[in-house]
Design a protein that fits this description.
Order of helices and strands: HHH
Distance between the termini: 6 Å
Strand content: under 5%
Radius of gyration: 15 Å
């Protein structure tokens, strides 16, 4: 299951490399996976409790996948 997810992520990121390499820049990639965290406690997923300010700030600058299937 994990191999399928990593393979999908690798292929997804591979699509960005030709564009990035032609620009002369290296991509900044941070992959965070959460397994046993309730979505209703995460601010970037809709919580109003303010429990995850650092994750919320990071999510505002990046891409958040709300659903991932493997």
């Amino acid at each position: 299951m994990m191999r399928t997810t990593l393979r999908s992520l690798f292929l997804f990121l591979l699509g960005f490399l030709p564009h990035v390499s032609s620009a002369g820049e290296r991509p900044n990639i941070v992959l965070i996976t959460l397994d046993t965290v309730r979505a209703d406690r995460m601010g970037f997923l809709g919580s109003k409790h303010g429990l995850t300010p650092q994750m919320d700030a990071l999510a505002r600058k990046g891409i958040v996948f709300e659903r991932m299937y493997a």
